[in-house]
Write the structure tokens for this entry.
Amino acid sequence: MLERIDTVCMKVNNVQRASDWYEEHLGFEVVFRGEGYRILHVGDKGVPLTIEEGEGANKEGNYPIFYSNDIKETYETLKGKGVQLGRLHDDGVNTFFDFFDADSNRLQVCHYRE
């Protein structure tokens, strides 16, 4: 019946500004432009991120978690770009940190041994 997650959708206040932020700060690629939304390609595989213009930007509710092979390098790169970051956590199994986009949406990066 259900085959996979097609996309993760997140509300933003201004789709063009948000799209520019994701391209500039995270290196995402816009693969489709629709009226009031964009679909962004994340990394070399996986589930795309769809950003939709609308009320109720996601401050603390649901949020995407991105995986990084080198989380410390990712943390430092985002820090160097002026991205708002939480602290780096390590629970012994998973290393992770929160960060926030231009609309203050919460996002997270994690790393664990595969």
